[in-house]
Amino acid sequence: LEQAKRPSVIWLSFQECTGCTESLTRSHSPSLEGLIFDAISLDYHHTLQAASGDAAEHAREDAMKEHYGKYVLVVDGSIPLDNPGYSTIAGISNLDMLKEAAAGAAAIIAVGTCAAYGGLPKADPNPTGAVSVSDIIKDKPIINVPGCPPIPVVITGVIAHFLTFGLPELDSLGRPKAFYGQSIHDRCYRRPFYERGLFAETFDDEGAKAGWCLYKLGCKGPVTYNACATTKWNDGTSFPIESGHGCIGCSEPNFWDFGGFYKAI
Ligand code: SF4
Ligand code: F3S
What we know:
Blueprint: E1 8-13, H1 19-24, H2 32-39, E2 41-45, H3 53-66, E3 71-76, E4 79-80, E5 88-89, E6 92-93, H4 94-103, E7 105-111, H5 112-117, H6 119-122, E8 130-131, H7 133-136, E9 142-145, H8 152-165, H9 177-180, H10 184-187, H11 191-195, H12 206-209, H13 228-231
Parallel strand pairs: 1-2, 1-3, 3-7, 7-9
Antiparallel strand pairs: 4-8, 5-6
The structure holds iron/sulfur cluster and FE3-S4 cluster (F3S).
């Protein structure tokens, strides 16, 4: 019996910390195993693939040729423009590899704040001249899935949604509205304390112990759009604010340069 072919996905990792892949492996719905065994053919991912060296690069080239115009390109990490030699794979600069792979892609999913907006490598003074995928590729649909890293089920959920229904509705920063349509502050369980003017002033005062709002300790929840307060992390266990630390705005462009994680906005 001939089986229907699973759609090809090519995943490229540039200037990144592998945190996005770490997050991907923790997705529970769909799980990574469910995704790669049942839904997609992950033809290249240099952390997860079994092949290495020439065999790995041939797998990428073969998939690009065989599925030209149809594969989904996923990118994590930013791209250095100041000196293409800052970051290379198999001797190929990130810039050249991105352009070549983007040419045959049906769409690009930029996973993580580095791929979506430049992220940590772009933080002042941006020593590598880091830019985002959408700074370079202008002729393909791009879905931004920011976060440092993004929530596991948001990564797999966006891939599954694209393969099932096509492009999701996006906000002005290219993020799927289903996951990034509301601010952390909109859905935060500490919001009633904010409304009543009850704020923790230090991390160990009575307000902090009573679970009051973390705004005065630098929480960026009011200007950060992400699903942490609803989907949460670790299979729905918790999220940064629930563990006692303010949101640092990791799904927003330039969050490293906001002016201090512990300064109120
Ligand atoms: Fe808003 Fe942050 Fe306070 Fe939650 S802890 S209510 S997100 S300011
Ligand atoms: Fe990032 Fe804020 Fe969520 S720091 S992980 S967007 S609560």
